Amino acid sequence: MNESTASMGMMILWMVVIFGVMYFLMIRPQKKEQKRLQAMLNSMEVGDSIVTTSGFYGVIIDMTEEDVIVEFGNNKNCRIPMRKQAIAEVEKAEQASA
């Protein structure tokens, strides 16, 4: 084994280590966040309070597969359809206990 082969092996080893560190610091947390966001969007129901990605607060009044209709403010006439992906936070509606 000559010196150039050993240095090539060390370079490949360092590349593997750097990729492993990048995976655990960047890619893995992003995938976990995507799973959390998808679970939140799947658990939404009519009546839940939401915050949109642009900072508006509202209440879900109707849902389809990809869209929701959100009522904003106290004015019952302010109903806007929007994509589910535009929702940043969901607060579940209070359930009346029996």
From TrEMBL:
Database matches in Pfam families: YajC (PF02699)
Protein name, UniProt field: Preprotein translocase subunit YajC
Top-level lineage group: Bacteria
Bilayer topology term: Single-pass membrane protein
Main location: membrane
Keywords assigned: Cell membrane, Membrane, Protein transport, Translocation, Transmembrane, Transmembrane helix, Transport
Location of the protein in the cell: Cell membrane
Species for this entry: Blautia intestinalis
Family: Belongs to the YajC family.
Residues annotated as transmembrane: 6-26
Keyword Transmembrane helix annotated: yes
